[in-house]
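Teaching note: in complex prediction, the entire set of molecules is handled at once rather than each chain in isolation. The prompt given to students was simply: 'Predict the structure of this complex.' The entities are:
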Amino acid sequence: MATTFKTLLNNDIASTRTLLHEAVPITGTIVSGTYSDSNIKNFSHGMFQSVYDYPYLSSSANHIFDITMGYSTNAGLSSSAATQNSKKINIYNQMAQVLMGHDADGNIREFDRDGDLLGTTTDSMRECFFLNFSRLLVKDEIKKGSFQLTVATASAYSHGFDGAGELTLYDTDAQNSYRSNSPAGEYGLLYTASTFTSGDHTEQAVGQVFYQAGVIVLTSSIFGANPDDSDSEVEVSNYWGSKEGDDNDTYSTIKKAMYSGSISGSADGLRNRLKNVQFNNTTELNSTIYFCRANHNEFNYSSNPTYVTGSKMRVKNVTSDSPVSYITSVGLYSADNELLAVAKLSEPLKKTPENELTLRVRLDY
Amino acid sequence: MAFLDNSGDIILDAVLTDTGRFRLAKGDGSFRIVKFALGDDEVDYSKYDRDHASGSAYFDLEVLQTPVFEAFTNNTSTMRSKLISIPRTNLLYLPVLKVNKEAGGRVQMYTIDATNNTEAFLVAVDEDTELVQGGGTQMAKKAGVLSGENPNAAGHAGISKIRIDQGLDTSDIPPAFQLDSDLVEQQYIVEMDNRLGSIHNPEGPGLAAVSFIDDDNVASYYLSATTNPLYVSNNDNTKSDDGTQTIAGPRGTVLEFKIQSSLELNTSTTLFTKLGATSTIEGNCFYYIDSNIRVTGATTGYRIDVPVRFIKLKAAGSC
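The expected output is the structure of the full assembly:
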């Protein structure tokens, strides 16, 4: 019986899961400089600022991340007299309830420095910057232990990134130690040290990286005199300007900027101090592998119209010659013969009764 | 539709087809891969040179250098010629499908351009077109013209039908020899544009059952000798020169069908103006749409495209 289809048996189909990682480097010049801020989009509602990898009016531009800031209602800065006070609280609460969740009484949990929500309650991060990375970069999640962010903590805005007080934050040892008490997935703590001191380390966390959500939370304390200080209040004495040339939104300290300045002004302040952000993303590939086995006595003839002239095969002169065919495609079919997937070989493969082939077709989902 | 890089290791570029994605999105379990086939669409076997002066290593040199396209996502554009599994290796001839144009006026094709020898089956999509006089004869009664509105009605009905013969088209083996049973095609897949028409019983009333219609409006019909004996029958003619056969050697089965035009073609000129043009045929002006009906042997995989021209009377006299 001549046939053109071959049924796939159970042992011809395998399912696998593969994690694929890509390195994502974001240089400071892209986020502040290269495009003279034409890649920065501010909104009339003023609640966050979007950063693109190219002037955003171009269709080639990709959204890479957003910057925003906010503070808790319990923060010292919270005051009805503060600029955009309601919006800053709104941002903080939105991020906190999504990323940290609620306590047993339904109250929004504040961001916690060490991620120990049931332990000390005096180490909350109440004034925070947020960097929300686009799914385009993060894909399924940020790879644990790969995150780095370098920022100048003591430079004036007008200097841009000048390295003053340069601080690099790492999710140190996160591949071995991370938190899972967030409703938004797993998160690691950001430290200023790339390695810990031996034994029980004493380094203080200055932020959090939410791996699946792709959100970075930074305490504004990193712009204070002592970034490792566990004091939750903002301690600053460094000049913190916001929008260049906008004297009305430029302040001498970050505390004043967060209180009297706009959210987008503070976002400008952080963005212009960024030197580098880098991480590896993770794509979870779920694959089904179909092993298409062509045995020695299968697929040796072709229905290609050029295979015959009249009805005589071109590849044989006499009946004793071996038939030969050339494979360029593999078609995967449903029971009702509908072509559901197709695979192409980069060059024709010779099939004769003297050989057997197994073509491994992988479909990723 | 670029070529794949063939400078290094052999790679396999796999994609879901549009139908595959459609079924996956439906989420009803209809996306289930249960079998595979191998294809050789790009290969031109006429480049296989069994008489190459430099020896057997050079027989398929040109074939192996054939560049291969990237995978298409259009399910009807790929896997058009499949490889066949036949356990025997001593075959020298393979069965083919051919449009039978020899068996009298009933199955002749209409000559559209005698100079360039272009032929097609004409389908008159409405009664006006069937009955209009062309060269002193009703269009529907001309050889090669199928009645699209009244495929089998008595009186003015057309007499033509499409007939595909299967077998070994070689004079090296006389037709009196019986075709090996494993090479006799028992089931055919007929694909046609569902917007234009449907497959109709060749001898009686009724349409063939559609197996499925894909996202490109291509309807597939599975017609087998077992369940559709009016469509598929054995070719018992073993004569070599009675003037009715197109297969020169041993014969397998015969597929016959007519075409019923779609309601849209029957009642409207929208598709004609969108997909077709106008032309003067037999002294009258007709709208027309050119299409193909693809017939594939479900067992042997051999495939032919039958050219079909759907016509609708626009006005008496030349365009």
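Point out the following to students. Chain B touches chain A through 84 residues (CB under 8 Å). Residues 1-83 of chain B form one domain.
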